[in-house]
Design goal:
69% helix, 68 residues, mainly alpha
Length: 68
């Protein structure tokens, strides 16, 4: 859940034009996903759509906000 919130913040930074903040946010979200993957028993059932591939897609969409 925390990774999802962090990537949403990063998308907001992209809307504001903050490339460095966007990249830092997505890097942090990737780290949080890796930490969560170490404990799959703690994953809520409704988070099944959020994984590293989804994060990569969201990062790409954020770059659309940044113009690139």
């Amino acid at each position: 859940m925390q990774a999802l919130a962090v990537q949403e913040e990063a998308r907001g930074l992209a809307i504001l034009g903050d490339t460095a903040g966007t990249d830092r946010g997505f890097d942090e979200a990737r780290e949080l996903i890796a930490q969560a993957a170490a404990h799959p028993e703690d994953e809520p059932p409704w988070i099944h759509l959020f994984d590293p591939d989804m994060l990569t897609m969201q990062h790409g969409l954020a770059y659309q906000y940044l113009g690139g």
